[in-house]
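Q: Here's a chain of 336 amino acids. Please give me its 3D structure as tokens.
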Amino acid sequence: MVLVTGATGFLGSHLVCQLLAEGELVRACKRESSDASEFEFVFAYYFPNPSDAADKRKSLHWVQTDVLEVDTLATAIRGCSWVYHCAALVSFDAGDFEKLMKVNIEGTANVVNSCLLEGVKNLCYVSSIASLGRTKSGNTMNEESKWEGSKLNSNYAISKYRAEQEVWRGSEEGLEVVIVNPGVIIGVGNYKKGSNALIHSVFKGLPFYSMGVNGYVDVADVARAMISLVKSKVRNKRFVLVGSNQRFRDLFFLIADTFGCKRPFIEVGPVLAALSWRVMAVVRIFSKNSLAITKETARAALNESYYDASLIQREIGFTFTPMEETVKACVDTYQL
């Protein structure tokens, strides 16, 4: 039996389905308020045959818990051979600072402590390339990159870096850990939220693009890498998971061309980026909706961040899905 936190989320859904496909018994965690619609969409993508789907559901056991509820979390973890910790809050809204620190740091500490208390020796943790920190635009980062305090580090990055330290603490106390640091994750799922929202935005006629660069990875690759690392003999290491470093312009153009719709046509430079987040900050005063553009995301849109994922390729011979295939799968499964 393996346990997955954040099982109704984007990555968690893919991980659970791949584990079921591998024949694993899966204990999947969800909160009382969790929306399982994305999981059901992904599950149907992996198991379109009704009889096969029914068979896989027999190996899936849902448990209601929360990484901030120590008692129910410990009960959920009890008796598992591996814990895959995917649950996290992703936000670039400055107003979510306290939530980020509580869910991502305290929640991860709770998972680590519960593993230690319940005698579960193995933990696979989903961190982020954000935990590597930001360096000078144009530099390439990898697993050896050292965290540096910088105004370029988002609150989300800080929370993931500190959460990663909790996992390393666990390794010093006896846990066997594997950490993955995925880039911006896209793939088959809900195209109206999270990083996948860029698919929906381009389809709907997003007019803007920037020349910034970031690392991207297929969600199915992240899940596959986690399972492959767990099955390997590699322990107490972290791995950057980036299939390709892409300019925002090039990725947006690829999505538009695959849809057969109009490409974004307005380049966002420093002045427009600075203006956009300030306007959105004012809009938020009169709206309960979360910010689509923040100071942090506007800054990231102009930065050139490159990532080297060659370590996992050398260690276990891992190969990444070309971004063209990822985008095509998204377009093929996009629902109007």
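Q: Can you summarize the key feature?
A: Residues 47 and 53 are 5 Å apart (CA to CA).
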